[in-house]
Amino acid sequence: MNASEKPVVHPHIAPDDLLTLLTVARLGKYTAAAQRMGVNHTTISRRIAALEKAIGQRVLTAAAGGYELTGQGRELLPAAEAIEQALLRITSGTAQTGTGELVGTVRIAAPEAFVLHFAIPALAALQRQHPGLQLELNTVTRKARRYRTGMDIEVVVDKPQVSNSTLHPLRKYSLGLFASRDYLRRVGTPEALPDLAGHRIVYYPEHSLDVDALDGAVDSIPTTAGFVSSNSVEAQVRATIAGMGVGLLPVFMAGEHPGDSELVRVVPDFTRRISYWASIRPEALRSPLVTAVLGALKQQR
Question: DSSP for 91-121?
Fold first, then answer.
């Protein structure tokens, strides 16, 4: 809650109804709010209806795939946040007090590689500082939806074009071509792109992601002798280590396996530069929990 905003509550408004509005505003969806609050979808709908009846105005408006706040709904957020913080102080004894302790849950959707290599180290450090912080990590690689809902933070590949969302660059990375030493001894080393015609390519299933930067990464690679495809980038790395083909892999992952299974970069002139971005609803950024998690993700470079 901003210091300039004064929480004003109508005498007939129930605190639970305001907390429900706050949760829907942050997540954009009744089902996600119900899961967060431990109630069912009907309860969320009933509380929002009761809130609108109490003030005589709509507080939410339907958008594609979810809900957005009306002007009246936004005016109620400071009051809802004041109730939330008071309850946290009572239940935890520390949240948002002089100790600076953060208590609550943050839901994150992010690509598997980002979760494994960047989010987990950053959030482990943050959670050690704030043991009351609960995290839900959903691994998914996809294009940011026009109206993103259901998550506090959505990490996507490349800068998205989305509505009602704030965008935050996290880190840049690149894709390269790699193979195991054993594979290269058996099959030979491709030196240039045309040489890949005799090799299998290890990558995502064709057109499975609807992510232009990732789908387009294979456009300049000639038709090959076959493929090993997986929607798991960790599976792609392991398949490449096992000698199943030439992997089109994130460079930060391919350099992790020393010793006999070390991956060797081939066709070194080939590279595709990509970036991770966070997409967050403006209402979610009003939460100290979400801003703390976003800050930790930005620092992990």
Answer: HHS-BTSTT-B--EEEEEEE-HHHIIIIIHH
Sign, CA torsion 190/195/198/204 = positive
Q: Distance between CA 21 and CA 31 in Å, rounded?
A: 13
- DSSP label at 222? P
Residue 218 binned pLDDT confidence (cut-offs 50, 70, 90):
confident
Residues 195, 267: contact at Cβ < 8 Å? yes
CA distances from 165 to 74, 113, 139 (A): 15, 23, 20
Range with the poorest average pLDDT among 4-18, 73-87, 151-165: 4-18
Backbone angles phi, psi at 268, to 5 degrees: -60, -20
Q: Which two tokens stand for residue 217?
A: 């990464």
Taking each helix axis from N to C end, the angle separating 15-27 and 30-37, rounded to the nearest 10 degrees, works out to: 120
Q: Which residues pair with 66 in a beta bridge?
A: 63
**Structure confidence at residue 262 as a pLDDT band (50, 70, 90):** confident
Q: Is the pLDDT of residue 185 over 90?
A: yes
